[in-house]
Amino acid sequence: MAGSVNKVILVGNLGRDPEVRHTQDGKPVVNLSVATSETWKDRNTGERQERTEWHRVVIFNENLARIAEQYLRKGSKVYLEGQLQTRKWTDQSGTERYSTEVVLSRFKGELTLLDAKGEGGGSYAAAGGDDFGSSGGFGGAKSASKGGGDLDDEIPF
What we know:
The protein starts with 7 loop residues before the first strand and ends in a 24-residue tail after the last strand. The protein is mainly beta. Helix content is about 5%, strand content about 45%.
């Protein structure tokens, strides 16, 4: 195989409000806890079953962090694109631990608000450094760009 791909796409709900911290040089880092669920009908009993997976998401992009801090709350539905990263750390008792997270880095990643205030969401992507551009909406969400405004979505498709 000539190359490889490390890309994660999540559509889910926040399990708690975003946790915002700042690096020593003042840049924001946002931690999210995102739940994704799948449901199915049990063949034997006919009952509806559900399984929920929890995902740790870390946003290093300053603009996406600002959007997350300002607009996301517990229960918000989001579309995220990032990369899977595992890091090693030592807990207070000296035990080495590993955490696997979905990371939206400074120059990569996408965050789309699927249920923002006022019936639609906004789509934000990390593009070319500290700028963010518009990106196609997902599931009927409205897209917003840097200079954006509200879009009048009365298109019947």
